[in-house]
Design goal:
516 residues, mainly alpha, three-stranded antiparallel β-sheet, two-stranded antiparallel sheet, 18 helices
Length: 516
């Protein structure tokens, strides 16, 4: 395929991706009323085509395409209000509370102590309600909820989710909500939070471009983040604070992967601690970095977390936990009913115990055998395993996995992130077949794809290794033969060494794809 045709294909794929994201963000522009899930599937297909075609584009041109495409999908995503999450309205409320000088953990939105902070945007009392737990709707007074009592028994009609309980978000996230509120105090819309999340998504793209080059990896891998539908929909569209945690995690990993001094190790640990104090999910990369210096990293991370929590603990005491215990119960993790894949085999408390054992064993294996110079590799495994085991209903939890995949370079892991969009449905009908557990299909199917690709990679590696061994013979002096990948996203290169004793050894080689 010629270079011009390849670039034209990328442009067409990105245009299709942008249009599909726009239709998800603004359903009124879709005369055919295509279901959102169909649009999302189409977006993943367009993303895959664009990323595949980018493999052989020169890096200089690829960087421009990555940035332009990333900006385009984020702008399209933030062009409309959130469509499948109400978390952003809680962010806005928490920001307003803090701007008024009130600790966000002190009151629930429905409490009398913060009635004066309500406005028509977040509490549109004249707007008809759509029922508790329905995104984009309102909650009526004394209208009970079978899903979550926290949604009911509040005065008036509100866009804020769980108005009956305190916030669940950690302190760094709360500081971010306050910063956005102070930056746009008079803007009664979702745009400031969406724009801030989109900006963090683009900042992550830029850090990836520089970071991948600094690591000797191909900067074109940044497209796996910049163009991914999960990033567009969960950053620019739904404005999730998870993207801030991802940015901090990325900076921590880049520092710790090449840390040669105690100062860099401590700084990496601090950044990782701040990421965890933004959203808990970055704790999943901790096993992958501990071999770099477990004492320094642990101490610095714990110190950073303690420092940001301290003012709130002094102000509200035990209320600092917010809705976290209730959230774990609501999602079925404390009772063992929230694990769809494990639920095929065991149930109840035994399922919870099985989940803890599985994730614990994987974490210990990563700590014991992981490569501290490539912590994203263990991070991918740990994060993907947590998603497949815990099967969360919220697809934005996979945004951390997307960033780790961009660092690691094995795109098949994104199948688990894509599967998250099935999990957000309580029930699903595909081709006339009712899917009663979409979480099992989404995460289980994604894990099956990853396993199949792992087998293919192993077989290809063995075939190449066997061919190199035959060609090398049994020379007495150690010689190296590097098998280069056929493309950027193909199986990794393998360095084969024939030792003096004639025994072969092999290891992953650095990415040697052309950067120009």
């Amino acid at each position: 395929m010629s270079a011009k045709l390849r670039v034209a294909g990328i442009a067409a794929s990105l245009a299709a991706l942008t249009i599909l994201i726009l239709l998800v963000a603004r359903p009124s522009l879709d005369p055919a009323r295509i279901k959102p899930l169909v649009l999302v599937i189409g977006a993943w297909v367009a993303f895959g085509c664009a990323a595949w075609l980018l493999r052989k584009v020169t890096v200089r041109l690829a960087v421009g395409l990555i940035l332009a495409g990333g900006i385009a999908v984020q702008v399209a995503a933030l062009s409309g209000p959130p469509q499948n999450s109400s978390d952003l309205y809680r962010y806005i409320w928490d920001g307003r509370v803090q701007a008024a000088g009130i600790d966000p953990y002190l009151y629930a939105p429905g409490d009398a102590g913060v009635v004066a902070l309500r406005n028509h945007f977040l509490w549109p009392s004249t707007r008809p309600g759509t029922g508790p737990g329905h995104y984009g709707g309102c909650v009526k007074k004394n209208r009970p909820s079978a899903v979550d009592p926290a949604y009911s028994l509040v005065v008036g009609c509100t866009m804020v989710n769980r108005p009956g309980v305190p916030t669940v978000y950690p302190p760094v996230a709360e500081a971010y909500f306050l910063a956005v509120q102070l930056a746009a105090p008079g803007d009664d819309s979702t745009t400031p939070v969406q724009a801030a999340a989109a900006a963090f998504a683009m900042l992550t793209t830029v850090i990836l471009l520089f970071g991948l080059r600094g690591l000797g990896k191909d900067p074109r891998l940044a497209a796996l983040w910049a163009w991914c539908p999960t990033v567009a929909l969960e950053a620019g569209q739904n404005g999730h604070v998870d993207v801030v945690a991802v940015t901090l995690t990325l900076m921590a990993l880049l520092l710790l992967a090449r840390a040669r001094t105690e100062g860099r190790t401590v700084l990496g640990g601090v950044l990782l601690g701040l990421a965890i104090a933004t959203k808990v999910t970055p704790v999943l990369v901790v096993p992958a970095v501990l071999r770099r210096g477990w004492l320094l990293i642990s101490a610095s991370a714990v110190a950073a977390i303690s420092l940001v929590y301290a003012p709130h603990v002094m102000a509200v005491g035990r209320k600092i936990l917010g809705f976290l215990p209730g959230y774990l119960k609501q999602e079925g993790y404390s009772t063992g009913n929230g694990f769809s894949v494990i639920g095929l085999f065991v149930h109840g408390k035994l399922a919870t115990a099985a989940a803890v054992v599985i994730l614990g064993v994987i974490a210990m294996a990563i700590i014991r055998f992981g490569d501290p110079g490539q912590p994203w590799r263990g991070g991918v495994l740990m994060t993907a395993a947590a998603l497949a085991v815990c099967t969360p209903r919220f697809q934005w939890y996979a945004i951390l996995l997307v960033m780790l995949v961009a660092l690691d370079g094995r795109p098949e892991w994104l199948a688990i992130a894509a599967g998250g969009y099935l999990s957000s449905h309580i029930q699903l009908r595909i081709g006339g077949i009712n899917i009663y557990d979409p979480r099992l299909l989404g995460y289980g199917g994604g894990a099956a794809i990853v396993a199949a690709c792992a087998v293919v990679r192993y077989l290809l590696t063995r075939r190449r290794f066997a061919g190199t061994s035959v060609g090398a013979g049994s020379a007495p002096d150690a010689t190296e033969h590097v098998i280069e990948p056929a493309a950027v996203f193909a199986p990794p290169a393998v360095t084969v060494t024939i030792g003096a004793d004639g025994a072969p050894a092999f290891a992953a080689a650095a990415d040697s794809a052309s950067h120009e």
